[in-house]
Design a protein that fits this description.
This protein has seven helices and nine strands. The protein is of the alpha+beta class. It has three domains: 2-54, no CATH class; 70-147, GMP Synthetase, Chain A, domain 3 (2-Layer Sandwich), CATH 3.30.300.20; 151-223, 2-Layer Sandwich (Ribosomal Protein S8, Chain: A, domain 1), CATH 3.30.1370.
Length: 236
């Protein structure tokens, strides 16, 4: 069991910090309050510290390849990289697929390593693939993860997409989701691709864009027609 601690001015703020860092929903984390200091009239400074219990990462792949090989070099590179940013840990092969290598980072500071909405982890993966591209690796793409964040994030995004689609169906109003990287946007588009009454479109510039979830044109026209009929009935 892995344990991480978060602080806030109150319990809810500390929980929000944990949710944002770990990419989880409130009901998915086990919270233990370990310290609670009330603010005083003269000095203020209220603080709540919580402890979040997470399952340890379990190895899903083999050990590293022989010393000096591509896998060994990438693991050593990642260990050196996170150590230089003050987060020492171990790199472990998680899986091997066709032109794809998964590396899991084992560290006590997984929340910091993940960063806000996974942006720090995404930056580490980007750097890793630049380094991998300079080696004779056969164009292998490196997937960097910690604490199964990517799997949890995928499930969270799919739930969010489905909940947003239901909200659009109820209200008839389009919803604009948070900024996401290309992989995350593809997850949302794919999750809602089978819904004939819903359409999705990416908006914005650069790497991080937002997905707009709205009723399909046919569904929107039907909604306008129904509202018009109700309006005529009310006038009578």
């Amino acid at each position: 069991m892995n344990v991480q601690e978060f602080e806030g001015k109150n319990e809810q703020e500390a929980i929000n910090q944990a949710i944002q860092a770990l990419g989880l929903k409130r009901e998915e984390i086990d919270v233990e309050i370990v310290e609670a200091k009330k603010s005083s009239f003269l000095f203020g400074g209220g603080k709540v510290k919580i402890r979040v219990h997470l399952e340890e990462d379990k190895p899903t792949g083999d050990s590293r390849s022989p010393e000096g090989g591509f896998e060994e070099k990438m693991c050593l590179f990642l260990e050196g990289l996170i150590e230089r940013i003050g987060l020492p840990g171990k790199a472990q092969i998680a899986f091997r697929e066709d032109r794809k290598l998964g590396i899991n980072l084992l560290t006590r500071e997984a929340g910091i390593l993940i960063g806000k909405r996974g942006q720090t982890l995404e930056a580490i993966q980007l750097i890793s693939n630049i380094v991998a591209g300079r080696q004779d690796s056969g164009n292998i793409r490196v997937i960097v993860d910690t604490q199964n964040y990517r799997s949890r994030r995928e499930k969270s995004l799919i739930r969010m997409a489905q909940q947003t689609a239901e909200q659009v169906r109820r209200t008839g109003r389009p919803q604009l989701l948070e900024a996401m990287n290309p992989f995350e946007r593809r997850l949302v588009h794919t999750a809602l691709a089978g819904a004939e009454d819903i359409e999705t479109n990416s908006e914005g510039e650069g790497l991080y864009k937002r997905v707009r979830v709205s009723a399909s044109r046919q569904q929107a026209q039907q909604g306008r027609s129904q509202r018009a009929q109700r309006g005529r009935s009310e006038k009578r």
